[in-house]
Task: structure prediction
Amino acid sequence: MKRFIKILHTLGSIGLMGGYGAYAVMVYTAPTDPAAYAVVRYSIERVSTWLVLPSLCVCLVSGLLAIAAHPPFIDATWVWVKAVTGVSMFEGTLGAIQGRAKEMAEQAAKAAAGTGSPEAMAELLRGERTALWLLIVVAGVNVVVGVWRPRFKFSSRPSSAASTTEPDEPTEGDDAPALASDAVAPGEAVAPGEAVAQTEASKEPLPPAAVEDPPTAAPQPLAQDQAS
Result:
């Protein structure tokens, strides 16, 4: 199921980017003759209706299905970035591309019949080109985010491990004051030199305790009956 959704999403992305590209090529290379321009505008409207809009719907639906089929996507920030940009692309395509493509086709047909308004067509064409380039940029960002998949981390926990962990053993610098204070009676003032001497003396290893040899038994005198 996941592979099918991924294939569907990839095909939708290909159709969407291809539709945007074909739309842009026809808009910028349309002829100036009114009759020929009306034919091109009709083709642009067909591309928008049968390629751009369906491909965008496939991308959105397959993306939502991928989130439902793969629970880790719910906690991924880049997934929601793609979702937001996808929804904005859908709204922009539906209003600024699909709607203007139909209106421009109608205006071009009127211009071919000699009843159109060139000023109205020029205004529609200017807004159409701006919206088209914005949608192409947003679609490119969507593709980059989907491939790169940046990990945005927002954590309120302290990053320093030293604040939560304690050393297992005290260091040598921590032992020296304690040893110096142990060698002095409470309330007695100690000069700095004496404190250092007491600290160094406390670090010297103690001599091993003297071990007494076990007492040996006195030699017993030999029996003297044989000598007598």
